[in-house]
């Protein structure tokens, strides 16, 4: 997993819960990196899982709630770092339906060895989108946070339904409607 995912996660933890919480979850975790990350480094997903689990245990928030908040936070990183990418889209449905064929291609230019989920578009219209998310990591709530912020970016609202295809959350169907 790319280091930017770790550095931004720890930034979010500091922003929402304080620097003491960052230290606490790092100390509670058994991290080969010792909690020292660079945005361009590559680290084990197991480290992220430990950090999220410890944050959940310390805050009482579920892992899904934390991943949702993190996805919303991470959209701000994209918005600030890659405004040109977002400017190529006029609509959230258009943007979300292009994750696999445009956005992930651009991500791979920056991070060639990034392990990204796949998004298969099943149905698309101006008002709705149905996609299948597949990943070895059950981080679909991170994706939901990104989707929520995508609609907010375009000053639109949505109704997004998640249906687990695989119980472990590694394959999920997103049904998205503009409201």
From TrEMBL:
A GO molecular-function descriptor: heme binding
Residue intervals of the Heme NO-binding domain: 2-161
Pfam families associated with the record: HNOB
Protein name: Heme NO-binding domain-containing protein
InterPro entries per record: H-NOX_domain_sf, Heme_NO-bd, NO_sig/Golgi_transp_ligand-bd
Gene3D superfamilies, alphabetized: H-NOX domain (3.90.1520.10)
Signal peptide positions on this chain: none
